[in-house]
Amino acid sequence: MTDCLFCKIVNGTIPSKKIYEDEYVYAFHDIDPKAPVHILIIPKKHISGVPDLRNDDDVVIGRIMRVAHHLAQENGIATSGYRVVVNSGKDAGQAVFHIHYHLLGGRHLAWPPG
Ligand code: 5GP
Ligand code: ZN
Question: Taking the model in full, what pTM does it have?
């Protein structure tokens, strides 16, 4: 999509601190981190959010979860623990409508979330 912030990050029009990339997935540091480790993992393909997922997307979503654990290991939080979060819609505070998985860790994460 031409007018999507995260599509522009994937294609390099808007700079980001990239930490991982493969054929399906791009991962980068969140610009406003909410934890010592706060990484956004996104499909390269534009998908607006959870309600827009289709059967064909199962592979990329599965890949994102495996990349999340890989990046947790690389960032030293796989043993201490981490959270993978997707915000969907208004009540969850979704601000960017290109689906993204937050990988958060490096501190105690309260439950339930706020
Ligand atoms: P949401 O609230 O939609 O689940 O999360 C959007 C996330 O994107 C927020 O954590 C926010 O800090 C991050 N974000 C927004 N704009 C940018 C940007 O231009 N670059 C980066 N790296 N992160 C961004
Ligand atoms: Zn997009």
Answer: 0.98
